[in-house]
Design brief:
Number of helices: 10
Distance between the termini: 51 Å
Shape: globular
Order of helices and strands: HHHHHHHHHH
Strand content: under 5%
Structural class: mainly alpha
Number of domains: 1
Number of strands: 0
């Protein structure tokens, strides 16, 4: 293994994840820091809640792309043989680095988002059909509740279950990663869980017109 190149890929993956899309977009186009409004989270959901879908949609796209690109770095750098367990393991490592970067971004004083969109991008790079299945769970729960947090947690919890029963993989690291993703989503949504228990969690509604600066 090319250890220096692997270390470089992990470093680049963290930097990709650290791009604070929500913060930069809110400051550039609306002259506010989205972390000071709404839920205080630097993620696409809070951007949509505070500034509307026209601003939030590009944030989602970039955050997903960050995770996909970071998890694809081992493929681009030819760090392991195609379809090998080692390649999958390296993709998971760089994917985790991008998720850590999103939650603790060096470019935004380590105050980032919950990582849902970036995790989605990582999963797209790892297993496209498994990711679509998890998205199906998210969409079904969201259309029933209109609450992003509970939809995200349900999708996260479905990830290891779907992997185990329908999309089995020879990679033990992938199985462990699926459990860690589910646990991480629960942890990063702990404040949302508190609001859900109190009946105070807000629903995400369509804003026809973005908030002006």
């Amino acid at each position: 293994m090319n250890i220096p190149l692997i270390a470089m890929a992990i470093f680049f993956a963290y930097l990709l994840g650290s791009i604070p899309t929500a913060v930069w977009v809110s400051k550039k186009f609306h002259n506010i820091d989205v972390r000071e409004h709404g839920s205080g989270n630097a993620g696409a959901t809070n951007v949509i809640r505070v500034l509307g879908w026209k601003t939030g949609a590009p944030v989602i796209i970039v955050d997903v792309a960050k995770g996909w690109l970071a998890s694809s770095l081992p493929v681009f750098f030819h760090l392991a043989g195609p379809d090998s367990s080692l390649l999958v393991n390296l993709q998971i490592i760089t994917g985790i680095a991008s998720i850590v970067g999103h939650v603790y971004p060096v470019f935004a004083w380590f105050r980032g988002g919950k990582g849902v969109a970036t995790i989605f991008g990582v999963l797209l790079a790892l297993n496209f059909y498994l990711t679509l299945s998890c998205f199906g769970v998210f969409l079904a729960i969201f259309l029933i509740t209109w609450i992003v947090s509970i939809s995200s947690m349900c999708a996260g919890l479905s990830f290891p279950l779907l992997l185990l029963f329908f999309f089995n993989t020879p990679s033990t690291v992938f199985k462990v990663f699926s459990v860690l993703v589910a646990a991480a989503l629960i942890f990063t949504h702990r404040k949302n869980i508190g609001r859900l228990l109190k009946g105070e969690e807000s629903k995400l509604i369509w804003k026809s017109k973005d908030k002006k600066s």
